[in-house]
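Tutorial sheet, problem 5. The two components below are modelled jointly, 582 residues in total.
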Amino acid sequence: MQKKTGRIRKSPQQRKQTLLGYLFVSPWVIGFLIFGLYPIIMSFYYSLCQYDVLRIPQFIGFGNYKELLQNDPYFWKSIWNTLYYTVIRTPLVILGSLLLAVLVNNTVKGIRFFRTIFFIPSIITGVVLSALWLWLLNPQYGLFNSILAVFGIHGPLWLQSPNWSKLSIVLMSLWSIGGGRMLVFLAALQGIPTALYEVVDIDGGGWWAKFRHVTVPMVSPVIFLWTILDVIFSFQVFTEAYVMTKGGPLNSTLFYNLYLYYKAFDDFSMGYASALAWLLLVMILVITLIQFLVGKKFVYYEGK
Amino acid sequence: MRLNFKTYRTTMTYLLLIAVSVVLILPFLWIISTSLKGSESIFAIPPQWIPKQIHWDNYAKVFTKMPFFIYMKNSIFISVMTILGTLISGSLVAYAFACMKWPGRDWLFVFMLGTMMLPMQVTMIPVFVLFKQFGWLNTFKPLIVPAFFGGGAFNIFLLRQFFLTIPKDLFEAARLDGCSEFRIYWEIVLPLAKPALATVAILTFMMTWNDFLGPLIYISDKLKGTLALGLAMFVGQYQTEWGVLMAASVLVMLPIIILFFLFQKYFIQGFMMSGIKG
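Model answer (C-alpha coordinates):
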Protein backbone atom coordinates (compact mmCIF):
# COMPACT_ATOMS: atom_id res chain seq x y z
CA MET A 1 0.00 0.00 0.00
CA GLN A 2 1.19 3.49 -0.82
CA LYS A 3 1.69 6.08 1.86
CA LYS A 4 -0.26 9.32 1.62
CA THR A 5 0.86 10.98 -1.59
CA GLY A 6 -1.32 14.05 -1.60
CA ARG A 7 -3.35 14.63 -4.73
CA ILE A 8 -1.38 12.25 -6.91
CA ARG A 9 -3.52 10.05 -9.12
CA LYS A 10 -4.76 6.90 -7.43
CA SER A 11 -4.39 3.44 -8.84
CA PRO A 12 -7.55 1.72 -10.10
CA GLN A 13 -7.07 -0.73 -7.23
CA GLN A 14 -7.30 2.08 -4.68
CA ARG A 15 -10.23 3.69 -6.39
CA LYS A 16 -12.07 0.39 -6.24
CA GLN A 17 -11.34 0.07 -2.52
CA THR A 18 -12.63 3.55 -1.88
CA LEU A 19 -15.83 2.86 -3.75
CA LEU A 20 -16.34 -0.47 -1.97
CA GLY A 21 -15.52 1.15 1.39
CA TYR A 22 -18.32 3.65 0.88
CA LEU A 23 -20.63 0.85 -0.19
CA PHE A 24 -19.89 -1.28 2.89
CA VAL A 25 -20.29 1.63 5.29
CA SER A 26 -23.45 2.89 3.61
CA PRO A 27 -25.98 1.01 5.80
CA TRP A 28 -24.89 3.01 8.82
CA VAL A 29 -24.63 6.29 6.92
CA ILE A 30 -28.11 5.91 5.41
CA GLY A 31 -29.44 4.82 8.81
CA PHE A 32 -27.90 7.85 10.46
CA LEU A 33 -29.41 10.21 7.91
CA ILE A 34 -32.92 8.72 8.30
CA PHE A 35 -32.96 7.86 12.02
CA GLY A 36 -30.42 10.38 13.33
CA LEU A 37 -29.80 13.59 11.43
CA TYR A 38 -33.27 14.11 9.93
CA PRO A 39 -35.07 13.49 13.27
CA ILE A 40 -32.72 15.81 15.17
CA ILE A 41 -33.41 18.66 12.77
CA MET A 42 -37.15 17.93 12.78
CA SER A 43 -37.13 17.66 16.56
CA PHE A 44 -35.74 21.19 16.79
CA TYR A 45 -38.32 22.41 14.30
CA TYR A 46 -41.17 20.74 16.23
CA SER A 47 -39.86 22.30 19.45
CA LEU A 48 -40.67 25.67 17.89
CA CYS A 49 -44.20 24.57 17.03
CA GLN A 50 -47.50 23.57 18.47
CA TYR A 51 -47.96 20.03 17.17
CA ASP A 52 -50.37 17.21 17.99
CA VAL A 53 -49.48 14.84 15.09
CA LEU A 54 -53.00 15.07 13.60
CA ARG A 55 -52.72 18.64 12.32
CA ILE A 56 -49.75 20.32 10.62
CA PRO A 57 -47.24 21.90 13.05
CA GLN A 58 -48.04 25.54 13.90
CA PHE A 59 -44.93 27.69 14.25
CA ILE A 60 -44.89 29.56 17.57
CA GLY A 61 -41.22 30.52 17.97
CA PHE A 62 -39.72 29.94 21.38
CA GLY A 63 -43.12 29.71 23.07
CA ASN A 64 -42.63 26.14 24.29
CA TYR A 65 -39.28 26.94 25.88
CA LYS A 66 -40.69 30.04 27.54
CA GLU A 67 -43.64 28.09 28.93
CA LEU A 68 -41.31 25.34 30.22
CA LEU A 69 -38.89 27.61 31.98
CA GLN A 70 -41.40 30.11 33.35
CA ASN A 71 -44.73 28.40 34.02
CA ASP A 72 -44.21 24.67 34.35
CA PRO A 73 -43.70 23.40 37.92
CA TYR A 74 -43.61 19.76 36.67
CA PHE A 75 -40.61 20.58 34.51
CA TRP A 76 -38.63 21.82 37.50
CA LYS A 77 -39.90 18.97 39.65
CA SER A 78 -38.71 16.44 37.08
CA ILE A 79 -35.31 18.10 36.84
CA TRP A 80 -34.96 18.04 40.61
CA ASN A 81 -35.97 14.34 40.76
CA THR A 82 -33.57 13.41 37.98
CA LEU A 83 -30.64 15.33 39.48
CA TYR A 84 -31.32 13.84 42.93
CA TYR A 85 -31.39 10.35 41.45
CA THR A 86 -28.23 10.94 39.39
CA VAL A 87 -26.22 12.52 42.19
CA ILE A 88 -27.01 9.75 44.67
CA ARG A 89 -26.89 6.81 42.30
CA THR A 90 -23.72 7.52 40.30
CA PRO A 91 -21.15 7.54 43.15
CA LEU A 92 -22.84 4.57 44.86
CA VAL A 93 -22.77 2.48 41.68
CA ILE A 94 -19.12 3.34 41.02
CA LEU A 95 -17.92 2.82 44.58
CA GLY A 96 -20.04 -0.29 45.16
CA SER A 97 -18.95 -2.05 42.01
CA LEU A 98 -15.31 -1.06 42.54
CA LEU A 99 -15.39 -2.61 46.02
CA LEU A 100 -17.03 -5.75 44.62
CA ALA A 101 -14.30 -5.92 41.98
CA VAL A 102 -11.59 -5.63 44.65
CA LEU A 103 -13.29 -8.44 46.57
CA VAL A 104 -13.44 -10.82 43.59
CA ASN A 105 -9.93 -9.89 42.46
CA ASN A 106 -8.77 -12.41 45.06
CA THR A 107 -7.20 -15.69 44.08
CA VAL A 108 -8.93 -17.90 46.65
CA LYS A 109 -10.38 -21.20 45.46
CA GLY A 110 -13.81 -21.02 43.81
CA ILE A 111 -13.53 -17.31 43.03
CA ARG A 112 -14.94 -17.87 39.54
CA PHE A 113 -18.10 -19.27 41.10
CA PHE A 114 -18.53 -16.15 43.24
CA ARG A 115 -17.91 -13.88 40.25
CA THR A 116 -20.75 -15.63 38.42
CA ILE A 117 -23.07 -15.32 41.43
CA PHE A 118 -22.29 -11.60 41.75
CA PHE A 119 -22.98 -11.11 38.08
CA ILE A 120 -26.34 -12.90 37.85
CA PRO A 121 -28.58 -9.98 38.99
CA SER A 122 -27.16 -7.94 36.10
CA ILE A 123 -29.02 -9.98 33.50
CA ILE A 124 -32.35 -8.82 34.95
CA THR A 125 -33.49 -5.44 33.61
CA GLY A 126 -36.45 -3.36 32.59
CA VAL A 127 -40.00 -4.52 33.24
CA VAL A 128 -39.04 -7.82 34.91
CA LEU A 129 -36.70 -6.02 37.29
CA SER A 130 -39.45 -3.53 38.12
CA ALA A 131 -42.06 -6.22 38.73
CA LEU A 132 -39.74 -8.16 41.02
CA TRP A 133 -38.77 -5.14 43.09
CA LEU A 134 -42.33 -3.95 43.40
CA TRP A 135 -42.89 -7.10 45.42
CA LEU A 136 -39.54 -7.10 47.26
CA LEU A 137 -40.26 -3.55 48.44
CA ASN A 138 -43.88 -4.15 49.39
CA PRO A 139 -44.27 -2.34 52.75
CA GLN A 140 -46.31 -5.05 54.49
CA TYR A 141 -45.18 -8.39 53.06
CA GLY A 142 -42.07 -7.65 50.97
CA LEU A 143 -38.65 -9.18 51.55
CA PHE A 144 -37.03 -6.03 52.91
CA ASN A 145 -39.56 -5.15 55.53
CA SER A 146 -40.00 -8.80 56.51
CA ILE A 147 -36.29 -9.02 57.28
CA LEU A 148 -36.27 -5.66 59.04
CA ALA A 149 -39.24 -6.86 61.12
CA VAL A 150 -37.15 -9.77 62.38
CA PHE A 151 -34.86 -7.17 63.98
CA GLY A 152 -37.83 -5.28 65.33
CA ILE A 153 -37.43 -2.43 62.83
CA HIS A 154 -40.52 -0.98 61.26
CA GLY A 155 -39.38 -0.52 57.65
CA PRO A 156 -40.26 2.49 55.49
CA LEU A 157 -43.01 2.53 52.87
CA TRP A 158 -40.33 2.44 50.14
CA LEU A 159 -41.95 3.15 46.77
CA GLN A 160 -45.13 4.41 48.40
CA SER A 161 -43.37 7.14 50.35
CA PRO A 162 -42.36 10.39 48.61
CA ASN A 163 -39.24 10.50 50.78
CA TRP A 164 -38.09 6.97 49.97
CA SER A 165 -39.33 6.38 46.41
CA LYS A 166 -36.24 7.67 44.62
CA LEU A 167 -33.92 5.93 47.07
CA SER A 168 -35.83 2.70 46.47
CA ILE A 169 -35.12 2.94 42.75
CA VAL A 170 -31.45 3.68 43.52
CA LEU A 171 -31.30 0.58 45.71
CA MET A 172 -32.84 -1.55 42.98
CA SER A 173 -30.45 -0.19 40.42
CA LEU A 174 -27.46 -0.97 42.66
CA TRP A 175 -28.55 -4.60 42.92
CA SER A 176 -29.13 -4.91 39.22
CA ILE A 177 -26.05 -3.15 37.98
CA GLY A 178 -23.28 -3.79 40.53
CA GLY A 179 -22.21 -7.12 39.07
CA GLY A 180 -21.99 -5.87 35.51
CA ARG A 181 -19.89 -2.86 36.44
CA MET A 182 -17.82 -5.09 38.70
CA LEU A 183 -16.62 -6.97 35.61
CA VAL A 184 -15.56 -3.70 34.00
CA PHE A 185 -13.49 -2.77 37.04
CA LEU A 186 -12.17 -6.30 37.47
CA ALA A 187 -10.64 -6.13 34.00
CA ALA A 188 -8.95 -2.87 35.00
CA LEU A 189 -7.73 -4.24 38.35
CA GLN A 190 -6.13 -7.23 36.70
CA GLY A 191 -3.97 -4.86 34.71
CA ILE A 192 -2.34 -3.34 37.82
CA PRO A 193 1.23 -4.62 38.33
CA THR A 194 1.54 -6.40 41.70
CA ALA A 195 4.88 -4.66 42.27
CA LEU A 196 2.96 -1.50 43.14
CA TYR A 197 1.17 -3.28 45.99
CA GLU A 198 4.45 -4.72 47.23
CA VAL A 199 5.79 -1.19 47.60
CA VAL A 200 2.92 -0.41 49.97
CA ASP A 201 3.67 -3.64 51.87
CA ILE A 202 7.27 -2.55 52.35
CA ASP A 203 6.08 0.83 53.60
CA GLY A 204 3.89 -1.01 56.10
CA GLY A 205 0.64 0.20 54.59
CA GLY A 206 -2.54 -1.83 55.03
CA TRP A 207 -5.61 -2.58 52.97
CA TRP A 208 -6.83 1.00 52.92
CA ALA A 209 -3.47 2.41 51.86
CA LYS A 210 -3.37 -0.01 48.95
CA PHE A 211 -6.88 0.89 47.88
CA ARG A 212 -6.35 4.62 48.24
CA HIS A 213 -2.84 4.97 46.81
CA VAL A 214 -2.60 2.20 44.23
CA THR A 215 -6.01 0.86 43.21
CA VAL A 216 -7.93 4.11 42.85
CA PRO A 217 -5.27 6.04 40.90
CA MET A 218 -4.58 3.07 38.63
CA VAL A 219 -8.21 2.56 37.68
CA SER A 220 -9.06 6.27 37.61
CA PRO A 221 -9.40 6.38 33.79
CA VAL A 222 -12.04 3.63 34.02
CA ILE A 223 -13.79 5.37 36.93
CA PHE A 224 -13.79 8.57 34.90
CA LEU A 225 -15.29 6.96 31.79
CA TRP A 226 -18.01 5.15 33.73
CA THR A 227 -18.91 8.20 35.78
CA ILE A 228 -19.62 10.04 32.56
CA LEU A 229 -21.63 7.14 31.12
CA ASP A 230 -23.52 6.50 34.37
CA VAL A 231 -24.57 10.13 34.59
CA ILE A 232 -25.93 9.90 31.05
CA PHE A 233 -27.72 6.62 31.89
CA SER A 234 -29.18 8.03 35.11
CA PHE A 235 -30.54 10.98 33.21
CA GLN A 236 -32.52 8.60 31.03
CA VAL A 237 -34.24 6.56 33.74
CA PHE A 238 -37.71 5.69 32.49
CA THR A 239 -39.00 2.11 32.53
CA GLU A 240 -38.65 1.55 36.29
CA ALA A 241 -40.64 4.65 37.15
CA TYR A 242 -43.24 4.02 34.46
CA VAL A 243 -43.91 0.45 35.60
CA MET A 244 -43.56 0.81 39.37
CA THR A 245 -44.84 4.24 40.33
CA LYS A 246 -46.17 6.04 37.24
CA GLY A 247 -44.27 9.04 38.61
CA GLY A 248 -45.90 9.01 42.05
CA PRO A 249 -46.34 9.32 44.97
CA LEU A 250 -46.77 13.11 44.85
CA ASN A 251 -44.67 13.23 41.65
CA SER A 252 -41.63 12.14 43.64
CA THR A 253 -40.53 9.79 40.83
CA LEU A 254 -41.60 11.99 37.94
CA PHE A 255 -38.24 11.77 36.18
CA TYR A 256 -37.37 13.88 33.19
CA ASN A 257 -37.94 11.21 30.53
CA LEU A 258 -41.14 10.06 32.15
CA TYR A 259 -42.50 13.59 31.98
CA LEU A 260 -41.34 13.83 28.37
CA TYR A 261 -43.12 10.58 27.54
CA TYR A 262 -46.37 11.73 29.17
CA LYS A 263 -46.24 15.02 27.29
CA ALA A 264 -45.55 13.32 23.96
CA PHE A 265 -47.71 10.20 24.05
CA ASP A 266 -50.44 10.90 26.60
CA ASP A 267 -51.08 14.59 25.89
CA PHE A 268 -49.80 14.45 22.31
CA SER A 269 -48.05 17.78 22.91
CA MET A 270 -45.29 16.79 20.51
CA GLY A 271 -43.92 20.31 20.18
CA TYR A 272 -43.65 20.76 23.92
CA ALA A 273 -42.08 17.30 24.32
CA SER A 274 -39.57 18.13 21.56
CA ALA A 275 -38.55 21.23 23.48
CA LEU A 276 -38.02 18.99 26.52
CA ALA A 277 -35.91 16.64 24.40
CA TRP A 278 -33.73 19.46 23.14
CA LEU A 279 -33.19 20.80 26.63
CA LEU A 280 -32.19 17.27 27.67
CA LEU A 281 -29.63 17.15 24.89
CA VAL A 282 -28.19 20.51 25.94
CA MET A 283 -28.08 19.49 29.62
CA ILE A 284 -26.29 16.22 28.85
CA LEU A 285 -23.75 17.99 26.65
CA VAL A 286 -23.06 20.67 29.26
CA ILE A 287 -22.77 18.21 32.15
CA THR A 288 -20.48 15.92 30.16
CA LEU A 289 -18.30 18.85 29.17
CA ILE A 290 -18.00 19.96 32.80
CA GLN A 291 -17.09 16.42 33.82
CA PHE A 292 -14.37 16.31 31.18
CA LEU A 293 -12.89 19.60 32.37
CA VAL A 294 -13.00 18.65 36.06
CA GLY A 295 -12.03 15.02 35.46
CA LYS A 296 -8.84 15.84 33.60
CA LYS A 297 -7.30 17.03 36.87
CA PHE A 298 -7.96 13.80 38.75
CA VAL A 299 -7.37 11.10 36.22
CA TYR A 300 -4.00 9.40 36.14
CA TYR A 301 -2.83 8.19 32.75
CA GLU A 302 0.07 5.82 32.67
CA GLY A 303 3.20 7.00 30.94
CA LYS A 304 2.31 10.67 31.26
CA MET B 1 2.41 -16.14 62.78
CA ARG B 2 2.62 -15.48 59.05
CA LEU B 3 0.60 -18.59 58.29
CA ASN B 4 -2.08 -17.66 60.83
CA PHE B 5 -2.44 -14.26 59.28
CA LYS B 6 -2.94 -15.86 55.88
CA THR B 7 -5.61 -18.24 57.15
CA TYR B 8 -7.36 -15.36 58.87
CA ARG B 9 -7.34 -13.36 55.65
CA THR B 10 -8.70 -16.24 53.59
CA THR B 11 -11.46 -16.89 56.11
CA MET B 12 -12.45 -13.23 56.12
CA THR B 13 -12.49 -13.19 52.31
CA TYR B 14 -14.78 -16.20 52.18
CA LEU B 15 -17.08 -14.72 54.81
CA LEU B 16 -17.40 -11.53 52.80
CA LEU B 17 -17.91 -13.40 49.53
CA ILE B 18 -20.65 -15.54 51.05
CA ALA B 19 -22.35 -12.58 52.72
CA VAL B 20 -22.50 -10.59 49.47
CA SER B 21 -23.69 -13.66 47.55
CA VAL B 22 -26.55 -14.18 50.01
CA VAL B 23 -27.62 -10.53 49.70
CA LEU B 24 -27.60 -10.73 45.90
CA ILE B 25 -29.29 -14.12 45.58
CA LEU B 26 -31.90 -13.80 48.33
CA PRO B 27 -34.29 -11.75 46.14
CA PHE B 28 -34.36 -14.58 43.58
CA LEU B 29 -35.22 -17.19 46.21
CA TRP B 30 -37.90 -14.93 47.63
CA ILE B 31 -39.47 -14.44 44.21
CA ILE B 32 -39.44 -18.11 43.32
CA SER B 33 -40.92 -18.90 46.72
CA THR B 34 -43.68 -16.30 46.22
CA SER B 35 -44.46 -17.64 42.76
CA LEU B 36 -45.39 -20.97 44.36
CA LYS B 37 -47.53 -19.58 47.16
CA GLY B 38 -51.25 -19.11 47.56
CA SER B 39 -52.50 -15.97 49.26
CA GLU B 40 -52.68 -17.74 52.64
CA SER B 41 -48.90 -18.12 52.81
CA ILE B 42 -47.96 -14.97 50.86
CA PHE B 43 -49.44 -12.80 53.58
CA ALA B 44 -48.23 -14.96 56.45
CA ILE B 45 -46.17 -13.34 59.19
CA PRO B 46 -43.41 -14.33 59.79
CA PRO B 47 -42.84 -15.15 56.10
CA GLN B 48 -42.58 -18.77 55.01
CA TRP B 49 -39.62 -19.48 52.76
CA ILE B 50 -40.90 -22.89 51.80
CA PRO B 51 -44.67 -22.74 51.35
CA LYS B 52 -46.66 -25.43 53.17
CA GLN B 53 -48.70 -25.96 50.05
CA ILE B 54 -47.04 -25.62 46.65
CA HIS B 55 -49.25 -23.69 44.23
CA TRP B 56 -48.19 -24.64 40.72
CA ASP B 57 -51.51 -23.20 39.59
CA ASN B 58 -49.99 -19.69 39.77
CA TYR B 59 -48.06 -20.63 36.63
CA ALA B 60 -51.15 -22.10 35.00
CA LYS B 61 -53.04 -18.87 35.77
CA VAL B 62 -50.43 -16.82 33.89
CA PHE B 63 -51.35 -18.63 30.68
CA THR B 64 -55.07 -18.06 31.14
CA LYS B 65 -54.77 -14.42 32.22
CA MET B 66 -52.54 -13.28 29.39
CA PRO B 67 -51.85 -14.56 25.87
CA PHE B 68 -48.39 -15.64 26.99
CA PHE B 69 -47.44 -17.77 24.01
CA ILE B 70 -48.49 -15.11 21.52
CA TYR B 71 -46.37 -12.55 23.37
CA MET B 72 -43.50 -15.00 23.45
CA LYS B 73 -43.79 -15.64 19.73
CA ASN B 74 -43.79 -11.86 19.08
CA SER B 75 -40.79 -11.29 21.36
CA ILE B 76 -38.84 -14.12 19.73
CA PHE B 77 -39.68 -12.92 16.23
CA ILE B 78 -38.63 -9.32 16.97
CA SER B 79 -35.46 -10.45 18.76
CA VAL B 80 -34.38 -12.85 16.01
CA MET B 81 -34.98 -10.28 13.26
CA THR B 82 -33.14 -7.58 15.18
CA ILE B 83 -30.18 -9.86 15.81
CA LEU B 84 -30.12 -10.82 12.15
CA GLY B 85 -30.20 -7.20 11.01
CA THR B 86 -27.53 -6.17 13.48
CA LEU B 87 -25.15 -9.01 12.60
CA ILE B 88 -25.49 -8.61 8.83
CA SER B 89 -25.37 -4.84 8.49
CA GLY B 90 -23.17 -4.18 11.56
CA SER B 91 -20.45 -6.56 10.39
CA LEU B 92 -20.42 -5.02 6.90
CA VAL B 93 -19.94 -1.54 8.35
CA ALA B 94 -17.36 -2.76 10.85
CA TYR B 95 -15.48 -4.43 7.99
CA ALA B 96 -15.35 -1.12 6.13
CA PHE B 97 -13.95 0.60 9.25
CA ALA B 98 -11.45 -2.10 10.22
CA CYS B 99 -10.24 -3.79 7.04
CA MET B 100 -10.54 -1.29 4.21
CA LYS B 101 -8.84 1.98 3.35
CA TRP B 102 -10.85 4.89 2.07
CA PRO B 103 -10.66 8.65 2.51
CA GLY B 104 -12.58 10.01 5.50
CA ARG B 105 -12.68 6.65 7.26
CA ASP B 106 -11.17 7.66 10.60
CA TRP B 107 -13.06 10.91 10.66
CA LEU B 108 -16.37 9.12 10.08
CA PHE B 109 -15.54 6.55 12.75
CA VAL B 110 -14.95 9.20 15.41
CA PHE B 111 -18.13 10.94 14.31
CA MET B 112 -20.05 7.69 14.67
CA LEU B 113 -18.75 7.22 18.22
CA GLY B 114 -19.89 10.77 18.96
CA THR B 115 -23.45 9.92 17.94
CA MET B 116 -23.62 7.45 20.84
CA MET B 117 -23.90 10.45 23.15
CA LEU B 118 -27.22 11.50 21.64
CA PRO B 119 -30.13 10.63 23.92
CA MET B 120 -32.75 8.72 21.95
CA GLN B 121 -35.44 11.11 23.21
CA VAL B 122 -34.15 13.72 20.77
CA THR B 123 -34.95 11.51 17.80
CA MET B 124 -37.92 9.63 19.27
CA ILE B 125 -40.75 11.98 18.27
CA PRO B 126 -39.78 12.68 14.63
CA VAL B 127 -39.03 8.97 14.11
CA PHE B 128 -42.48 8.19 15.48
CA VAL B 129 -44.05 10.69 13.09
CA LEU B 130 -42.03 9.20 10.22
CA PHE B 131 -43.19 5.65 10.96
CA LYS B 132 -46.74 6.92 11.32
CA GLN B 133 -46.49 8.41 7.82
CA PHE B 134 -45.19 5.06 6.53
CA GLY B 135 -48.30 3.46 8.04
CA TRP B 136 -46.09 1.30 10.25
CA LEU B 137 -47.81 1.97 13.58
CA ASN B 138 -49.03 -1.18 15.27
CA THR B 139 -46.65 -3.36 13.25
CA PHE B 140 -43.27 -4.84 14.21
CA LYS B 141 -41.49 -2.87 11.48
CA PRO B 142 -40.51 0.14 13.65
CA LEU B 143 -38.90 -2.30 16.09
CA ILE B 144 -37.04 -4.31 13.47
CA VAL B 145 -36.16 -2.24 10.41
CA PRO B 146 -33.73 0.22 12.09
CA ALA B 147 -31.51 -2.73 13.10
CA PHE B 148 -30.77 -3.39 9.43
CA PHE B 149 -28.97 -0.02 9.19
CA GLY B 150 -25.81 -0.95 11.05
CA GLY B 151 -27.43 -2.14 14.28
CA GLY B 152 -26.24 0.79 16.36
CA ALA B 153 -22.89 2.54 16.74
CA PHE B 154 -21.91 0.52 19.77
CA ASN B 155 -22.21 -2.86 18.09
CA ILE B 156 -20.25 -1.60 15.10
CA PHE B 157 -17.55 -0.36 17.46
CA LEU B 158 -17.40 -3.73 19.20
CA LEU B 159 -17.12 -5.66 15.95
CA ARG B 160 -14.54 -3.27 14.53
CA GLN B 161 -12.32 -3.67 17.60
CA PHE B 162 -12.41 -7.43 17.08
CA PHE B 163 -11.80 -7.24 13.32
CA LEU B 164 -8.69 -5.14 14.00
CA THR B 165 -7.11 -8.07 15.85
CA ILE B 166 -7.23 -10.24 12.71
CA PRO B 167 -3.77 -10.27 11.09
CA LYS B 168 -3.70 -7.91 8.10
CA ASP B 169 -1.53 -10.24 5.99
CA LEU B 170 -4.45 -12.61 5.76
CA PHE B 171 -6.59 -10.38 3.61
CA GLU B 172 -3.72 -8.58 1.93
CA ALA B 173 -2.71 -11.93 0.54
CA ALA B 174 -6.26 -12.71 -0.50
CA ARG B 175 -6.49 -9.33 -2.26
CA LEU B 176 -3.30 -10.00 -4.20
CA ASP B 177 -4.84 -13.30 -5.31
CA GLY B 178 -7.69 -11.27 -6.77
CA CYS B 179 -10.21 -12.25 -4.12
CA SER B 180 -13.16 -9.82 -4.01
CA GLU B 181 -13.77 -7.70 -0.90
CA PHE B 182 -17.08 -9.38 -0.30
CA ARG B 183 -15.48 -12.82 -0.37
CA ILE B 184 -12.75 -11.73 2.05
CA TYR B 185 -15.45 -10.42 4.36
CA TRP B 186 -17.64 -13.48 4.02
CA GLU B 187 -15.07 -16.28 3.88
CA ILE B 188 -12.15 -15.00 5.95
CA VAL B 189 -13.27 -12.34 8.40
CA LEU B 190 -16.71 -13.55 9.43
CA PRO B 191 -15.69 -17.13 10.31
CA LEU B 192 -12.80 -15.78 12.41
CA ALA B 193 -15.08 -13.31 14.17
CA LYS B 194 -17.57 -15.84 15.51
CA PRO B 195 -16.91 -15.01 19.20
CA ALA B 196 -17.46 -11.29 18.55
CA LEU B 197 -20.62 -12.01 16.57
CA ALA B 198 -21.91 -14.19 19.40
CA THR B 199 -21.25 -11.41 21.92
CA VAL B 200 -23.09 -8.87 19.79
CA ALA B 201 -25.96 -11.33 19.28
CA ILE B 202 -26.30 -11.85 23.04
CA LEU B 203 -26.19 -8.13 23.82
CA THR B 204 -28.75 -7.42 21.11
CA PHE B 205 -31.00 -10.17 22.39
CA MET B 206 -30.89 -8.75 25.94
CA MET B 207 -31.72 -5.27 24.67
CA THR B 208 -34.58 -6.38 22.43
CA TRP B 209 -36.12 -8.93 24.78
CA ASN B 210 -36.25 -6.34 27.56
CA ASP B 211 -37.09 -3.33 25.41
CA PHE B 212 -40.15 -1.58 26.77
CA LEU B 213 -40.31 1.93 25.37
CA GLY B 214 -40.28 0.75 21.73
CA PRO B 215 -43.30 -1.60 21.97
CA LEU B 216 -45.03 0.88 24.30
CA ILE B 217 -44.91 3.61 21.67
CA TYR B 218 -45.54 1.57 18.54
CA ILE B 219 -47.80 -1.31 19.52
CA SER B 220 -51.39 -0.72 20.62
CA ASP B 221 -53.05 -3.95 19.51
CA LYS B 222 -53.09 -6.25 22.53
CA LEU B 223 -52.22 -9.36 20.55
CA LYS B 224 -49.21 -7.71 18.94
CA GLY B 225 -47.57 -7.02 22.30
CA THR B 226 -44.24 -8.38 23.51
CA LEU B 227 -43.55 -10.17 26.77
CA ALA B 228 -42.13 -7.01 28.34
CA LEU B 229 -45.20 -5.02 27.34
CA GLY B 230 -47.54 -7.79 28.48
CA LEU B 231 -45.81 -8.08 31.83
CA ALA B 232 -46.06 -4.32 32.37
CA MET B 233 -49.82 -4.49 31.73
CA PHE B 234 -49.99 -7.46 34.07
CA VAL B 235 -48.32 -5.40 36.80
CA GLY B 236 -51.06 -2.81 36.43
CA GLN B 237 -53.89 -5.34 36.59
CA TYR B 238 -52.83 -7.99 39.09
CA GLN B 239 -50.85 -6.08 41.67
CA THR B 240 -52.59 -7.81 44.52
CA GLU B 241 -52.10 -11.34 43.19
CA TRP B 242 -48.40 -11.48 43.92
CA GLY B 243 -48.12 -15.23 43.40
CA VAL B 244 -49.36 -15.00 39.82
CA LEU B 245 -47.40 -11.83 39.09
CA MET B 246 -44.16 -13.40 40.32
CA ALA B 247 -44.87 -16.56 38.31
CA ALA B 248 -45.28 -14.37 35.21
CA SER B 249 -42.02 -12.55 35.97
CA VAL B 250 -40.17 -15.84 36.42
CA LEU B 251 -41.50 -17.07 33.07
CA VAL B 252 -40.39 -13.88 31.29
CA MET B 253 -36.88 -13.97 32.74
CA LEU B 254 -36.44 -17.72 32.29
CA PRO B 255 -35.20 -17.59 28.65
CA ILE B 256 -32.53 -15.05 29.62
CA ILE B 257 -31.40 -17.10 32.61
CA ILE B 258 -31.16 -20.25 30.47
CA LEU B 259 -29.22 -18.39 27.77
CA PHE B 260 -26.93 -17.02 30.45
CA PHE B 261 -25.98 -20.46 31.70
CA LEU B 262 -25.49 -21.72 28.15
CA PHE B 263 -23.44 -18.77 26.89
CA GLN B 264 -21.90 -17.35 30.05
CA LYS B 265 -18.64 -16.51 28.34
CA TYR B 266 -20.30 -14.20 25.81
CA PHE B 267 -22.50 -12.53 28.38
CA ILE B 268 -19.49 -11.72 30.51
CA GLN B 269 -17.48 -10.54 27.54
CA GLY B 270 -20.36 -8.36 26.42
CA PHE B 271 -20.78 -6.78 29.83
CA MET B 272 -17.06 -6.21 30.30
CA MET B 273 -17.07 -4.21 27.11
CA SER B 274 -20.34 -2.42 27.47
CA GLY B 275 -22.17 -2.63 30.76
CA ILE B 276 -25.15 -1.92 28.49
CA LYS B 277 -27.71 -1.21 31.16
CA GLY B 278 -28.69 2.25 32.22
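Marking note: Strands of chain A lie at 49-50, 58-59. Full credit if you identified this.
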